[in-house]
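Entry:
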Amino acid sequence: MTSALAYRPGRGPLQQAGALPAIVFVWSFAAVAFIHSNPLVLAGAGVAALVIARAAGVWRAATLALRWAAGLAVFVIAVNALVADHGLTVLVRGPSVPLLGPLDVTLEAIVAGAILALRIAVAMIAFAVYSACVDPDRVLKLVRPLARRSALTASLLSRLVPLAAADGARLRAAAGLRGPAAAPVGRLELLRRLVAGSLDRAVDVAATLELRGYRSSLPRARGRGHRSRHDRRFALAGLAALAAAGAAALAGVGASRPYPEVAVELGPAVAALAAGLPLVALAPFALAGRGGWRR
């Protein structure tokens, strides 16, 4: 059982691209979500991330991230509505709690929580696409000259996190097949077994790395990095999206603030920026031909 977030080699343009252009392309749209707080621009960045997932053939990873983001969004909005009381439009007057004061629910706090939830959703979709499309070995080779140990750690994390998710799914499936007479297995017991299995795998990985010479300080042969004809398209598309969002933010386009009263700009320039992000995300796949649209 393979997790939807696990990297699988493919023949799509994004999978064939080098690590650096793919990282720039995918994470540029996540950066847009942190540059702007306008809900329309955030929605455009989210649609762009979904377009990338669909075109790259990793829709399962995107839908998994969406499910996680939806559950987290409810929690974020609820907590922000209860904790933040800066808004002027009071919807519900709650009780007064010692040390916290009155737990009033304001419209502005709900809007601020929704904006934060949108940002988290875009970042989670971008991470899901990155995890499923970018080869961790290429990332390791890319970062190794700068920070060898940190690059190895990041590469191992990108591989072992999907394995841990698959282990958890297998443990839950095994617990459900034990029969009605067996004692129920709680979440704490499943977590204990998952952690124990992960520690055993970590020891095996460490031994394998030592046998392969990662402990040695001998110089390694330098080879040419992975290059693809799609690299320039993805790098330019990501930088274009980032530059457009940055220029709009510096020009004051899409200004938005939830406090003290909700103020959101929804002019033609904002709509053009939001609609342009998915088009920029689609452009490298369209230029690459039919190979970008794979199920």
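Residues 140 and 151 are 5 Å apart (CA to CA).
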